[in-house]
Structures are given as C-alpha cells and as structure tokens.
Write a structure and sequence with these properties.
By secondary structure, this protein is mostly helical. It has a single domain (about 5-190), classed as ABC transporter involved in vitamin B12 uptake, BtuC, CATH 1.10.3470.10. The protein is about 80% helix and about 0% strand.
Length: about 260
C-alpha cells in the first residue's frame, strides 16, 4: 500500500496535522505566531548546513530551530524587543541559508521543495521519520499539557501551583522545533507557520475547552490535507500551498459560521 505515492502523501500530511494541531493552539493562545514563523525561516539554514555536511535534513532543521529559539531568548534578555529580535533573526537565517547553499561544492538541489514543500515525493523512510516526530510532539504535549496550560493562562498562578513557567516555555520550544523539522518536507519552511496557526484559529470559535480546541484543530488540519491533495491532483497546483489554501478556506468558513451563530 505504501508504494502508492498518494497514500504516502496523505499519511505524511496527517502526521503534520497531528503534530501541528495541538501545538498551534498554544501558539495562538500565547500569541507566538511570529515566533513560529521565525523558527520555520531558520529551518532553511538548517537544511543548508545539513546538505553541506551530508547530514540528515531532519537533524539539521531541528538544530537550527532550537538555535533560533535560544538566540531569540538571549537577545530579548539584552534589551532587544521580542518582535525586533524575531524579525532580524528570521530573515537573517533565511538569507544565510539561501546563500550557504551556493557555497556547497557540487551541490545541485532545488530549495523550492524545502521552501514550499513536496509532500507528493515523500519516501517511506521520510514517512517513518514524520510519524516518529509527530508522535514525539504529541507525547510531549500530552505529558506537559496541564503545566503548559497553566503557564499559558497565568504565570503567577503557575508558580503558585508549583509549575515552572520557564520549563514549560522550553518544552514548547522543543515541540515547536520538532514540528518544524517534521513539517518542512510536507508544506515547506515558508508555510509551516500557516499550518500551526490557521487550523487552530479556525477551531477557536467552536471549542469550549482547550482539549476540544486541540482535537478540532487537528481534525481541521487533517481535512485540509485531504482537500489540498485532492485540489493539487485535480487542478495541477502545488500540494503544500494547496493544503494551506484549504486550511484558510476552513478558517473563512469558521468565521462565517461564528458570525451566524452570534
């Protein structure tokens, strides 16, 4: 069954939705949309370094995403505002990555596959990596769910409850880096932030509990994968952007439904 490229693409997209759905809820709740975008941009530099040193792309993107998070925290602690630090580091990392590829001798690679995704070309080995990464993210979020939720609602309340907000931020950063490393093959570095934010934003008007929002965001992401792949085959459009367009359509529909209910 896994010899069928479309089945592999659907399974890869589902893994991305499983990882990005619950994590995207925390990104929306904490207003970290730009942080997710910056981490995704940094993954391009990770791709360049991985290709240059003949390392697996997954580990290169994971290392670059974690380094971006640590660099943002360091700059923010030195008097630089968070949005400025994110803007400078995100675009610098993207530019360094694109330039670094040109200096790798004998390397001929199409970076558009990493920028916009190439889910239809996912191999069985890459599919296994995707599902292992998604399972790791889901497990981490399930393990730290209550602590993450308490620290997101109120850090003073978290401290009073014996929860360390710094530790929860670190767990969230690690999960975000894992999602970037997992999703770069499916939707690409430039569209990962959309898969984190759009399904969660579409789920928000209909969820009465945080857990319900996480489940609904995952379902919307999975539905966007199916609709995007269908549109890609039917209209000969890029698969990654088509998935994000489907998610955006779900968000627009949720806004309309929420307005009618209101």
């Amino acid at each position: 069954m896994l010899d069928d490229f479309l089945v592999r693409a659907a399974l890869a997209g589902l893994a991305t939705a499983l990882a990005a759905g619950p994590l995207g809820c925390f990104v929306v709740w904490r207003r970290m949309a730009y942080f997710g975008d910056a981490t995704a941009h940094a993954s391009v530099l990770g791709v360049a370094l991985a290709l240059g040193f003949a390392l697996p792309v997954f580990w290169g993107t994971l290392a670059a995403a974690l380094a971006m998070a640590l660099a943002v925290a360091a700059l923010a602690g030195r008097g630089v505002t968070m949005d400025t630090a994110l803007g400078v580091l995100a675009h610098s990392a993207l530019a360094f990555g694109l330039v670094a590829v040109a200096f790798v001798p004998g390397l001929r690679v199409d970076l558009s596959a990493y920028l916009f995704g190439d889910v239809l070309a996912v191999s069985q080995a890459e599919l296994l990596t995707l599902w292992l990464g998604a399972a790791a993210v889901a497990g981490l979020l399930a393990w730290r769910w209550q602590g993450l939720l308490t620290a997101t609602l109120n850090e003073d309340l978290a401290l009073a409850s014996g929860v360390d907000p710094g530790r929860e931020r670190l767990a969230l950063t690690v999960a975000l880096a894992l999602v970037v490393a997992v999703a770069i093959k499916t939707v690409g570095a430039l569209l990962i932030a959309a898969m984190l934010i759009v399904p969660a934003a579409a789920a928000r008007p209909f969820a009465r509990t945080p857990e319900a929002m996480a489940v609904l965001a995952t379902a919307i992401g999975a539905g966007a994968v199916g609709a995007g792949l269908w549109a890609s085959l039917a209209f000969d459009t890029p698969a990654g952007p088509s998935i994000v367009v489907a998610a955006a359509a779900a968000f627009a529909a949720s806004l309309g439904a929420a307005a009618v209910r209101g």
